[in-house]
């Protein structure tokens, strides 16, 4: 099981001032610490560092199950998380997460969405990925529904 954040080309576009999913420029702010997880490096934006707040659509096309939501990014250059086999930092910062499984055509698979405890997050994601009809699992904030990362089999 691999966890991924935003692809580097997408993160760089936002960091260079490209518009977000709603056609707006990313908002620039300053991180106040642990509540600001970067979706590219999958670590907390360090306190006092510049960060971006923007609307991101982690799907290939608009369709009824393609949720758009607010995300944070490091304001400057950060290294992408790459493919992480263990839980990235951003998936250790909360007591609960919302997970949802999707098919290859990016449609939610009913019955797979659940708020799970952080202690069993990896196990719950792995159970969903074991299903033949599941292509990926998105992990979101249980409190704010913000997209955090995507898990795949490889």
TrEMBL record:
Pfam families: DUF1203 (PF06718). InterPro entries: DUF1203. This is DUF1203 domain-containing protein.
């Amino acid at each position: 099981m691999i966890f991924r954040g935003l692809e580097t080309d997408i993160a760089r576009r936002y960091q260079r001032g490209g518009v977000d999913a709603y056609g707006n420029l990313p908002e620039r702010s300053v991180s106040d610490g642990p509540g600001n997880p970067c979706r590219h490096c999958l670590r907390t934006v360090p306190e006092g560092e510049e960060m971006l707040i923007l609307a991101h659509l982690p799907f290939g096309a608009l369709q009824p199950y393609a949720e758009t939501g607010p995300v944070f990014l490091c304001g400057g250059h950060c290294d992408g998380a790459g493919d992480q086999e263990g839980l990235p930092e951003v998936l250790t910062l909360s007591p609960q997460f919302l997970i949802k499984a999707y098919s290859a055509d990016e449609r939610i698979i009913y019955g797979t969405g659940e708020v799970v405890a952080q202690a069993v997050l990896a196990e719950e994601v792995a159970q969903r990925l074991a299903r033949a009809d599941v292509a990926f699992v998105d992990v979101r904030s249980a409190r704010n529904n913000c997209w955090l990362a995507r898990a795949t089999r490889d």
